């Protein structure tokens, strides 16, 4: 039996979230109720990401209406200039008739969601030969639609993965049978580092800079440096667990932290993502590596730190001062970790600590995301904290700020997302991890073991 044609009714939040969603439904038609257009019109003013998306949607619709087609017949959905979206043959329809009263279950008609639900009910009655599907990121509207027997779906096109369990972890644990299965073709030492050239089986899925840990008596920690057709090159990881090898006085406490420092201290890796729950050491490791490469090795000119200003609780209102002063309350993680990193010997005294703090303050800059567009960072070490609250578009905006010699480090925990309509599978941090895993100048590791305190560890597991 041939598949029935579909008609997708889009909620306003879908267009606000992804302005290109108009072109993501292949050969199927799209319907926009008048209430959606009204909400778009109300949200078009301002400099927020949502307002920019709304204005882009309006421009897309305006381009499709430019040739003066009859609105009742629908507008052919054409691919915008400069975008390679593989647009199908669908048409865009608007509400051109007044809606009837619909079901008595529909509540307050002054609510936009109920007006959109009423439009879906009317479409279902008028187009019995089609499958009318409501697409919304609002779960409550999808529940209401299900009560009325209307198929409703979340917007799936912006998902990096179908499930978070499929997300690349950056580390692979194997037993010592690895040596027999792959075979060592060559080994050598170069600049104090040991390398192994191994065979590669056709079904292996290796990624550049992937962390490899072999368990057992002859355990080894290594990073995959090259992946070719039938072989791969491993580099033995540097051991940052012992005091002589510490980074700015910080030693790794577990294998994941050791791999993280290997990625952070490698100047050939331009983009690093660290995932992990609270207390796993993400910020501390990133700051320690940044200070070591900025002040000691002189690789970068300064450290730039930023984050999304999304409150956990109620907003406390406007903050006084300059850009850096406004951002300071959001940078508690920076302040706390600097206290650990600037601990000095007793003989240095208060003067020594004050001098160290002044030096760090001159080399660590706090910047707001609001003013990032159009900037270019040259030879900077950029730390993006709480990156799980970024949308994929915001993540792209930030990463494309990188100029020559800049390294970007993204930190976050995708289980603690505070941005509305953003989920674990649609977060910009999830996108970055998934899209960069095949790039030879990027690295990722998921930190699993908390090292903050026994109280924090127990709370993380039990609450």
Automatic annotation (TrEMBL):
Which Gene3D superfamilies does the UniProt record give? 5'-nuclease, P-loop containing nucleotide triphosphate hydrolases
UniProt keyword annotations, A-Z: ATP-binding, Nucleotide-binding
Q: Which InterPro entries match?
A: P-loop_NTPase, PhoH, PhoH2-like, PIN-like_dom_sf, PIN_dom
Keyword ATP-binding (UniProt) = yes
Select a single GO molecular function from the record's annotations and give it.
Answer: ATP binding
Q: Name one GO cellular component term.
A: cytosol
| UniProt cross-references to SMART domains, sorted A to Z | PINc (SM00670)
Q: State the protein's name.
A: PhoH family protein
